[in-house]
Amino acid sequence: MKIIVTCGPSYEPIDEVRRITNFSTGELGSRLARALARAGHAVTCFKGVAATTPESAEPARTVTFTTNDDLAAQLHALPDRAEIGAVFHAAALADFKIEWARDGQRKISSRAGAVTLTLVPSSKVIRELRALFPQARLVGWKYELDGTREDALAKAKWQLADNHTDVCVINGIAYGRGFGVCVAGRAPEHHADSAALCAWAVEWLADRVARPA
Question: Which structural domains are found in the chain, ordered by start?
Fold first, then answer.
């Protein structure tokens, strides 16, 4: 099966020398891409250039991206989109970008003193995935810090409905240790660590190959 995995952070520029980004290392997505490739799938791992993990996705093929729009453009440009069987969208993409009238400036001068930057919502790549890959199994991610495990699982279920994905993986302080795997119409599954989650992904896809929808 041809598979896409996204991982690591995107960034959004403030000016030509500064940027905002997320605290994502890209480690989980790299491990996932490696596990799926070792299981025999043809995996392309789109990894944010700011990912800090030393983990390699090999034998998966790795392609880097910068901003949300850059990742979206690369996904749109794939010549074999109709052949993609699964997309694991684990990248920590920026929720906001900078709205700033540069007035011809390529770099904000530090001599200007305090600078106010306005954050506006950035593009949501996950909302484009169903149209881009209509035949693929889509797995999204939610990382939640506030609230209870029940709150986190409710947000995972919302993602499934709002973005027409097949699975949502939930983690973060709100969920607690490990990962929750939410499939529409089923009780959530718990996986204790990244190794268990990768094993689940390999088994889940093997089942999809054996019994295609």
Answer: 2-144+194-210 (3.40.50.10300)
